[in-house]
Specification:
This protein has 4 helices and 8 strands; from the N terminus they run H-H-E-E-H-E-E-E-H-E-E-E. By secondary structure, it is an alpha+beta fold. A hairpin with a 2-residue loop joins strand 4 and strand 5. The strands form 2 sheets. Strands 1, 2, 3, 4 and 5 form a 5-stranded antiparallel beta sheet that branches. A 3-stranded antiparallel beta sheet has the order 7-6-8. The chain starts with 5 loop residues before the first helix and ends in an 8-residue tail after the last strand.
Length: about 220
């Protein structure tokens, strides 16, 4: 079975992708009285890694911009033309949000879309120019492409342990204050033994260097 990258499913897949979905919607009756064309680009992408239970969750955040051109009749007054473009944008935003809600298995639902409009001007269209607006719709797409299981030592490195608690893995443990910051102090503790008392009641321990056991040759 071929694994399709999540970002490709989100943006380009014929069944679930945003761009094919919007292309299809622009052909429906709701948009039939609008003349439009669009493209997109990614403004920014970042990846965050968080620990949750026994796994590391990788989350990708894309800041995406749709660039749209809305054409209007040359005889249309500028005020009415602006309202025409706003009507289009409202319909489009509703479709984008609906698409994200229908694909919650791929991404977090989109909750906010920011749009900016140009002034009424000549827009390139099929080799010529027609009056219209350029609209940029910017929104964030958040999805989790990978979830990786933690090993026992990795779990310990992300966990805090209280004094008196049994040591899960032998190694060096740093003393952590209640604000989550290290005190700079470290202790050595052996698996199965209780952690020693700390100088303050609200302090805990976190693994920084597990003991590496050498394999013996028999």
């Amino acid at each position: 079975m071929i694994q399709i990258p999540i970002v490709r499913q989100i943006l380009l897949d014929p069944g679930t992708g945003l761009l094919p979905y919007l292309s299809q919607q622009l052909q429906t009756q709701s948009f039939s009285h609008f003349k439009s064309q669009f493209g997109f680009y990614v403004d920014e992408s970042c990846t965050q890694v968080t620990s949750k239970d026994d796994s590391l969750e990788t989350q990708t955040i894309l800041l995406l911009t749709l660039k749209l051109s809305i054409l209007v009749d040359s005889q249309t007054p500028s005020d009415e033309a602006a309202v025409h473009a706003l009507e289009f944008q409202e319909l489009l935003d509703a479709q984008i949000i609906r698409w994200s809600q229908d694909n919650e298995n791929l991404l977090q639902p989109i909750s906010s879309i920011k749009s900016t409009f140009s002034q009424l001007s000549d827009i390139p269209f099929h080799g010529g120019y027609l009056p219209g607006f350029e609209i940029k719709s910017q929104f964030t797409i958040v999805y989790s492409p990978v979830t990786t299981e933690l090993s026992q030592s990795e779990k310990a490195q992300y966990s805090l342990h209280n004094p008196g608690e049994r040591t899960p893995i032998s190694g060096q443990y740093e003393v952590i204050n209640s604000n989550g910051k290290s005190t700079g102090l470290e202790v050595t503790s052996t698996a199965g033994n209780p952690f020693p008392p700390t100088s303050e009641s609200d302090q805990s321990y976190r693994l920084v260097d597990p003991t590496k056991h050498k394999k013996s040759n028999r």
